[in-house]
Amino acid sequence: MEAKKANTQVLYNLLYGLEMMPDLGTPFDACTDVNDPTTYVDAIRQYILPEFERLNLENQNTVRGNLQFFLTTRLAPFAELVELCRMEASMPSPDDPAQLFVWIWQALFPSEDYRLADTAGWTVVDDRIEAARVFLAGQKDDGGDHLPPGD
Fold first, then answer.
1. How far apart are CA 115 and CA 149, in angstroms?
2. pLDDT attached to residue 104
């Protein structure tokens, strides 16, 4: 059985849509309650969900598996990932940075539980190139050959 890879860079790339908010208009202001999911979920639906829906099923499943693994195990550097996004997007951070990823899960997979029953057999990696392949290649509307193999 092939080991499954949990790639922290997939989580970072998932936040890319939120980094587009400064150019498109941010829903956050000084009065935003950083622990209220309402504004975050609206932003996730507006900026992350469309990008996720452009991915082909295989890459959507890759994102899904990565989110499930890291939310179940809490092994991702959630604070670091949210801070990078916050600096780019002028977005306030929730008190628990992992909560942002829970809200992302809830927006992408409503009414589904993220918890994995078994996390054995997973390997944690930090592979930017593989994460880029997930998000740049394999979109529904093309052949998915944006990046050459082996790069």
1. 32
2. 94
pTM score, whole prediction: 0.82
With CA atoms as reference, report the closest residue to 72 among 6, 138, 143, 4.
6
Burial class (CB in 10 A: 0-12, 13-18, 19+), 74: exposed
CA 12 – CA 74 distance, rounded (Å): 15
Structural contact between residues 28 and 39, judged by C-beta atoms closer than 8 angstroms: yes
Residue 144: per-residue pLDDT: 44
> What is the chain's length?
151
- The answer to whether 125 touches 69, Cβ cutoff 8 Å, is no
Domain range list for the chain: 4-136
Give me the phi and psi of 114, to 5 degrees please.
-85, -15
Which of 23 and 147 is assigned the larger pLDDT? Answer: 23
